[in-house]
Amino acid sequence: MIKKLMILSILMLHVVYANNCLKCHQNKMWQLKHSLHYTLKDAINITRDTWGVKESNVTLQTLPEPKAVVTKPADLVDDFLRRKCLRCHLQSRQINKTGNICLACHNRHFNRYDAKKAIAPMSKCLKCHNNEYIGTNYLGLFPHDYDQSYRSPIMKNGDYPNTKYGIDQHHLISDIHHKKGLTCIDCHNKNHVKPGQGWDGVLSCTSCHKHLSKKYHKSYHKNISCSACHSSWSGDSYELNVLRDDTANYKQWSRLTMQEDPYLQKFLQKALKENPPPRPMMPDYIDNKLKPGIWYSGWLFRRWENFYLINSDNGKVMIARPMYQYKISYKNKNGKMVLNNVSKLNNGTPIQVFLPYTPHTITKQAKSCEMCHDNPLLQINARKNVILSNVLIPKRIVGGYFLTNKQIQQLHSKKYKLIRAKMLFLNKIQSN
Amino acid sequence: MKIILILLIFGTYVFSSKLPDNCMLCHKNTTPMDRYHPYSRFGCASCHGGDKYATTMDRAHQGMVLNPSRLGNAKIFCGKCHKNIIKRVNSSIMNNMHGIFDVLRYQFLQTKTIRHTKGIFFVKNIPTSKQTLAESHFSKMCAACHINQNEKIFTTNRKRGGGCVDCHRISGAKEIKVLNNKLTLIHPKLSTKIPSKNCLKCHNRSNRIGLSYFGKFESEGYGTPYHNGKLTHREGRDRFYYNLPADIHHKIGGLDCIDCHTQTGVMGDGKYHNHMEGAEDISCKDCHSPKFESSSKSYLTDMLITLNHNMPYPKEVAVTSKKGTPIYNLQKNGKTITFYRKRDGKAFKMPLLNNAPYHTEAIHKKLACSACHSSWIPSCYGCHEVYFKDAKQYDWIKHKMTKGNWMELRSYLRYESPTLAVGYNKKIMPAAPGCQVITTIYGKTKYGKTTVKHAFHSFAYAAWDPHTTQLKSRTCIDCHFNPRTLGLGAGILNLKNDKITFTPFYKSKKNGLPISYPIDALISKNGKQYQTFSRKYARGFNKKEVYKIIEAYKCIICHNSWNDKIYKNFKKSKKLFYSGKTVCYKEIFGNKK
Fold this sequence. Notes:
The complex is a heterodimer. Chain A is α+β, with helices and mostly antiparallel strands. Chain A is 30% helix and 15% strand.
């Protein structure tokens, strides 16, 4: 009872102070409302475009209501966004129970003297920026597989391990900046997080690291992004299979309740026990109403070893990853398969997109030359022999384009071979 | 000899007017058995026992057995004709299961080295309360797959056990059925042409050879892609797979397990072998660089070809190099060498091992074929064994619920770039975790709370032929500069100032594992062995070997083909290079020296 009262009073406080932010920070509101954090324009439009919607420039605020009649993936995308992806937005109750938009990222403060309290802690960023999104990888976290047999290691009281950010996590090597104690906002300051427009070109490694030492930074590798070499691992999740099922068919998911959505996890665990089973309902995270149908998802597999290089639109060679390779199914409430494992649009375009990105898994020691130059996925002859290369190699890239033939040839140029051989032989030659 | 056999089999049809026993007077609607065991010749009682002259059911069924091929019965019934085989099967590793059990005891730290037991017959006599952890685990998890398992205990379609019929039954697997109350019995048919699906009833777990051969990789359980709103690619009840390249023998030839694995290798040679590899008979070379013997020498060849029906009588047949068993489906007539698929007699021209430098070169003499030709290996990292002392679970030996419940969890799966290690035969071959046991034993406190009573870990690798053979071998760099292949695990490998540097990705401590090294590291970059092998000679690469493999890569950068002349005498070539006289030295360093 006391606990409940305390929570209630804290919530009350939030409400009282909710509108008070604007008393002092009126000018910040304009900036915020034009930021990607507020509009989520990127995520929304890339997904809609991938699923075959023509109109662009839709924001979180102007996202249309889902279509009633579904015949193609484009009719379903708004429902998918509302109930799956947009679980994370500044005012989503899933991540920000207060209803105060500022408190999604900031802690509360009361006067100008305790303003430091309001600095955004990393934990608030990571509420959304986890899983496939850059954020938790900075800490070295990589999501476990869904199946319950991957909920390891089991804890001392015999329970499954505690989730971090709603997900069971592997611990891999973390970013060197994290090891040194930096948090998100040490690099991503307010001007980057809440810019007027997009944030390309606003922030780069070289804004801090101005004096690059070695020769190849400036010569033949000058068009390579820092992260292409200095990131250690890259989290890639291949083939996102999504199924909207409007029927109460839960049994096959009994081992897959960890759907990386706390609502769905709880719902499924309950539904599997109840008889008769409850109706399949899942919230629309924008209007917070329960709507019929459940979105299930599953991968082909997830890896941290692979990476693929592309030319980014900013002129640098960057690592790209699938975001995502969709396979879409929709079973309506009559049990009819409206869409059955659809992976291509009517015009033949694959429903998939690879995006360039900066893995936040930076190490001081760069990758070995071979990891790029002998990456079999990049070699035209070698890729034929790579297992499942049709999955690992993108069919469609947004925000960049494939390496040119010349670039691919350069990977195995004589110049490279001689330089690399010299690097490896030099020590022994000198000591001879 | 073969004439006698044919007479024996076909002659039986001629004299079929008189039945050898009275059973058929009631069981007249029984479907016929296979061509080798006609009722007209054998009747029923010679296999099933009972009183064959009786006229009442009770008398007739006295002392009768439903399944004469359960190994206990087989000695009496099948053994009338197949005495030698029954004896061999009885002492074989598939019957004793000591291969599994002995390694399990070693893995569970019960014995310091492999100590040999009678396997399942050793565990059988130990009451549940006195069982060690390994014995309990064996009874609850492993013993389900046993050739002499009681088939009736299985509720699903995948029934195992039954003795000889476990493998040799090709139809009527759902036991003898009584149709329409009319005593119409569907009798199982037996054959020596064992379909692979019979082998797969058991050989689908652990190193998963049975799945890999057909190109199935046990997946992380997603069941994707969905079809008609349902999970697909299911293998058994809770397991799923996705498709990877199948073994070339399956892809091109559609070969079954028995096309390579001889009867001596499978049913045993009458001797006691500690491990499967001792019992195993076949090797790649037996077919791809075969030795032939005149077929008239061997009675066994004659009999097997007669039973198979699908292939001609040859002048010469191949024999295995290890035990001299005839590979009767690999035949030589004059100069042509032909391989026949046992299932249907389809003929294939046998591709022979060529004499290209990559096969003959001294450097690679230590490699097993599978080291280069296996494209992937199922690697299951982290085997989290959880044991609840107070819960109950089905005991596959005692056939009832007994105290103690095991549950298995994992860390993650991979199939890429098989790790190489020195195997049990001192040859370099693919290896994968097998098994990385992290056991936690839970009990209850006085107040009924679940708590850890005991915990231990034992991390091991195992080397085996993964049965994912491809014609095209792995590339030079895939072995010579790939940290996963070397056994270091996933990470960044480099060579700086002639010293190996390695940054591993996986953080075992942070993942709550009780080990100080990455879970996928068999060895350290200095060749220190982190994880053990259950076999005597098996080990990861040592410091010298790791360096040697990586050092060769320096040359591979440019000389990445076996046709390159430097590999004709690699040692000499290297010497020449370091003396500064070669073209490539001058290209790399100029003419300074």
